[in-house]
Amino acid sequence: MCWQCDHPGATRQDYLDVLHGTVAKNGWAVQYVETEPPFAYTIGLSDAGLPELLVTALPPGQSMRLLNVVADYMVRKTEPAPGDTMTFPSDPAVEFVAVTAPDAHMGWAVAFHGGPIRGLQVAWRDEHGHSPWCPDFNQGGPRQPVLGVREPLGP
User: Fold this and answer.
1) Long-range own/partner contacts, residues 24-30 (CB < 8 A, 24 or more apart)
2) Which region ranges are annotated with the description Disordered (predicted)?
């Protein structure tokens, strides 16, 4: 269930207050959206001058783990650029894509920041290493919507 569903008498400001508490404690929050396909995004990174992160078509636990790992890396090390890739010891690599219209998908992040934000999608590869641009991507599984234009690959 979502927070708003569990608190039917609450206002948008009540939820923003909850988000402010989470961001103050952890540096960012993760919002999971149960649509088809589902997606998740960070809230609070914009206040640190970083893009908010977004991932599509993964279950809640996997989405939160991935976004938290990448957000922690961005806060501690460096901001990935669109077209950059990141590898993980136990998971397939990801590629970063600038989100074309972050306000269309990351409403709570926009409300939290109080204005326009930048978004960076964490586009994951399937268990065979296929990216969402590959026709063989995740055969038999869900497709991964990409909410921006892929950067050209380097030389």
Assistant:
1) 27/71, 27/75, 28/71, 28/75, 30/63, 30/64, 30/67, 30/68
2) 133-155
Structure tokens at 103: 């306000």
> Does a structural domain hold residue 143?
no
Contact criterion met (CB below 8 Å) for 99 and 105 = yes
Which residues form the domain of 29? 3-124
Supply the pTM of this predicted model: 0.93
Residue 55 placed within a domain: yes
Cα 44 to Cα 24: distance, rounded to the nearest angstrom: 9
Does the pLDDT of residue 3 top 80, yes or no? no
Closest CA to 31 of 60, 72, 69: 60
Residue 39 within a domain: yes
